[in-house]
């Protein structure tokens, strides 16, 4: 790496002074860098080798630089002596110290691996970054005051739990998380999933009390935290690759409509019986439209337009005005002055002030919350990774998926003891933090401190906060989740992806969030199996005046080579699709015999897309090869990768398909087949 960087410096330097470039000078510089870098590399390597038998595997490199060779030899001898002293049986005390030293290294590695704060906080540049982080942290904190309370109401909880979830837990994420710009805390989608439990009814058909709802929410956060920590420790972050983007987008769009549906009671001024199926809840609202009250609707409309207007002003004039919090304080002032709660506009009443009480979860109905826990753990990970990866790519650093699981899990787990309900990364707050100039995790810590100060000293200010104002904040936030253009794009580009999008959207809106995400995952897995069972197997032809072969369906001018079948398979060959390949080859053979006067004399398979093969695939290749060899037809493979070649040797398939019938290019295989046919024709003729 060091050599590469130094070499880049030379290239840049010579590009600036291109007129005075001398090749001999460049070569001298490169030679010096090479000796320096490689010499340092061997020194560092040998310093870390402590076992005697390790040195038998390393020979002194044949360096042309005598001083470097001498340095290597000296270092090697010194380390051999140290190795004997440490590992020798005659000195058990030193051997014990050696084991303790290795244990120390292991513990240090674990600390730095699972506590990323140890890697960035000691190197934090206070003068350079603190000002930007402070401004960004305060900006997001002010926004989160309103959003936190709104999402708590969405989850069926008292508004103070939105503040509790946004305070102390935000001091936990920077210790374990890897994203420098992630706006962690309550989000609409996760709050909606929590409400599926808190807003449901008990066995007797009655609504749960507020204390029971709180217990459910804290239990869900506790279990989500443990689940995500476990997922991170066993390195299960790869599961994100099994869910397609259209499926997630369909679910997200449907969830946005479900969230809007959950807030209609505050905007329309009347409540209805909630159903587990969103479409039935919508039906109940429509049939009870006679209960509509215009005062909350008018007030909510004004709030919504005001927030959207502030967003427009921010975008046009590049400002960072906190629209939601301005709307909150204006609504509080108007409600308190004109006593708007007399007109059916409900308010929060008293919000407790001070630290939340520390208590553990109550395991009263674990079986009831278990499906929701798994759903939230999964959605939390998907949402957090989507946001964190996007902003990390923008700023040039990497996100570790498994460590993000641990970071999110620890935040939810510890947060559940201080009144926090399930949290995740927020699209809107991450965007605000980034645009406000946040540089590191410190911005998130400052956001948490702002929220803590709020519920310690300022909660009495929110007594007259209208519920319809919080509903307006939620509605303006979830608008960003609705992507109508994405559906149009998918319909235009790929109908199968559009089909997956619509299944995910309709199933979520009709059957509910849990069934929606289950069907979305099911659709993704079906598509994975479908593409595995139905791999793309194309017929190749040669582009005129070249030695390049392409799919004849995509390149109309391609020329078929007479006398044979030339196919390409774009998938690993394993038990699911091995029979498909066999049927395809035999089908093309029958088609060839029906329309071609020239007898079939070769069958070639381009394996460029065949990245792997299992025992069933090897068996099918063996069967096909034997069949055509017996018929006197040339059978060959082209573009076989090292993995498949290795497995062919292990399975002795190379004794059937000889190395002389495996080629690095398709054109070479075609020429070999024609040459083979020419030789056989001469033998038969003479």
Which key features would you list for this structure?
686 residues; six-stranded mixed β-sheet; mainly alpha; two-stranded antiparallel sheet; 27 helices; globular
Question: Topology of this protein?
Answer:
Elements: H1 2-16, H2 23-47, H3 66-87, H4 92-114, H5 117-120, H6 126-154, H7 160-164, H8 173-176, E1 183-185, H9 188-198, H10 210-233, H11 245-262, H12 264-268, H13 278-287, H14 294-317, H15 323-338, H16 366-395, H17 401-415, E2 424-426, H18 427-435, H19 442-458, H20 467-478, H21 484-493, H22 495-511, H23 513-533, E3 537-542, E4 549-551, E5 564-569, H24 578-595, E6 602-606, H25 615-630, E7 634-638, H26 642-650, E8 662-663, H27 666-685
Parallel strand pairs: 5-6, 6-7, 7-8
Antiparallel strand pairs: 1-2, 3-4, 3-5
Helix pairs in contact: 1-2, 2-3, 6-15, 6-18, 6-19, 6-20, 9-16, 10-16, 10-17, 11-21, 11-22, 11-23, 14-15, 14-20, 16-17, 16-18, 21-22, 22-23, 24-25
Strand content: under 5%
Q: Tally the helices: what do you get?
A: 27
Count of β-strands: 8
Largest sheet: 6 strands, mixed
Quaternary structure of the protein? single chain
Low-pLDDT runs of 5+ residues are 49-69, 82-90
What is the typical, i.e. mean, pLDDT? 82
Query: Gyration radius, to the nearest Å?
Result: 33 Å
């Amino acid at each position: 790496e060091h050599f590469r960087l130094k070499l880049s410096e030379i290239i840049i330097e010579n590009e600036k002074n291109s007129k005075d470039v001398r090749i001999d000078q460049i070569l001298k510089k490169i030679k010096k860098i090479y000796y320096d870098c490689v010499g340092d590399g061997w020194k560092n390597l040998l310093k870390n080798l402590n076992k005697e038998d390790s040195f038998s595997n390393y020979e002194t490199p044949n360096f042309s630089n005598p001083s470097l060779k001498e340095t290597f030899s000296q270092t090697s001898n010194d380390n051999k002596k140290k190795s004997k002293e440490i590992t020798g049986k005659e000195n058990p005390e030193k051997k014990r110290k050696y084991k303790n030293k290795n244990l120390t290294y292991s513990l240090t590695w674990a600390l730095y691996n699972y506590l990323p704060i140890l890697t960035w906080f000691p190197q934090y540049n206070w003068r350079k970054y603190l000002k930007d982080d402070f401004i960004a942290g305060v900006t997001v904190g002010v926004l989160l005051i309103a959003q936190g309370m709104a999402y708590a109401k969405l989850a069926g909880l008292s508004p103070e739990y939105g503040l509790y979830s946004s305070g102390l837990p935000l001091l936990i994420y920077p210790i374990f998380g890897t994203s420098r710009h992630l706006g962690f805390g309550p989000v609409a989608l996760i709050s909606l999933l929590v409400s599926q439990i808190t807003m449901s009814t008990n066995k007797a058909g009655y609504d749960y009390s507020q204390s029971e709802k709180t217990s459910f929410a804290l239990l869900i956060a506790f279990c989500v935290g443990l689940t995500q920590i476990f997922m991170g420790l066993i390195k299960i972050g790869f599961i994100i690759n099994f869910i397609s983007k259209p499926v997630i987008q369909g679910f997200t769009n449907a969830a946005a409509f479900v969230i809007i549906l959950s807030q209609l009671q505050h905007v329309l001024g009347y409540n209805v019986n909630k159903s587990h199926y969103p479409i039935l809840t919508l039906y109940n609202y429509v049939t009870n439209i006679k209960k509509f009250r215009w005062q909350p609707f008018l007030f909510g409309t004004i709030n919504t337009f005001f927030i959207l207007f502030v967003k427009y002003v921010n975008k046009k004039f590049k400002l960072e005005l906190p629209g939601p919090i301005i709307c909150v304080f204006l609504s509080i002032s108007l409600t308190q002055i004109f006593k708007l709660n007399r007109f059916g506009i409900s308010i929060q009443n008293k919000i407790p002030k001070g630290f939340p009480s520390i208590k553990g979860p109550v395991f009263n109905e674990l079986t009831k919350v278990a499906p929701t826990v798994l759903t939230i753990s999964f959605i939390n990970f998907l949402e957090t990774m989507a946001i964190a990866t996007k902003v990390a790519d923008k700023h040039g650093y990497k996100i570790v998926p498994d460590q993000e699981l641990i970071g999110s899990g620890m935040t939810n787990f510890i947060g559940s003891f201080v009144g926090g309900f399930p949290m995740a990364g927020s699209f809107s707050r991450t965007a605000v933090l980034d645009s406000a100039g946040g540089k590191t995790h410190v911005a998130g810590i400052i956001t948490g401190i702002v929220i803590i100060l709020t519920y310690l000293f300022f909660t009495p200010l929110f007594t007259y906060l209208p519920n319809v104002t919080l509903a307006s904040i939620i509605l303006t936030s979830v608008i960003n989740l609705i992507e109508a253009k994405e559906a149009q794009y998918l319909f235009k580009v790929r109908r199968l992806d559009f089909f997956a999008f619509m299944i995910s959207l309709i199933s979520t809106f009709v059957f509910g969030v849990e069934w929606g995400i289950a069907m979305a995952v099911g659709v993704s897995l079906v598509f994975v199996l479908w593409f595995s069972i139905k791999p793309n197997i194309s017929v190749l032809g040669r582009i005129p005046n070249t030695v390049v072969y392409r799919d004849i369906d995509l390149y109309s001018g391609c020329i078929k080579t007479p006398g044979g079948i030339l196919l390409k398979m774009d998938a690993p060959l394993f038990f699911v699709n091995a029979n498909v390949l066999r049927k395809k080859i035999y089908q093309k053979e029958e088609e060839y015999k029906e329309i071609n006067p020239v007898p079939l004399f070769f069958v070639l398979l381009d394996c460029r897309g065949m990245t792997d093969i299992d025992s069933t695939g090897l068996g099918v290749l063996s069967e096909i090869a034997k069949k055509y060899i017996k018929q006197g037809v040339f059978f060959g493979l082209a573009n076989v990768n090292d993995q498949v070649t290795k497995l062919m040797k292990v399975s002795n398939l190379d004794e059937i398909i000889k190395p002389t019938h495996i080629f690095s290019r398709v054109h070479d295989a075609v020429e070999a087949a024609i040459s083979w046919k020419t030789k056989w024709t001469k033998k038969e003729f003479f």
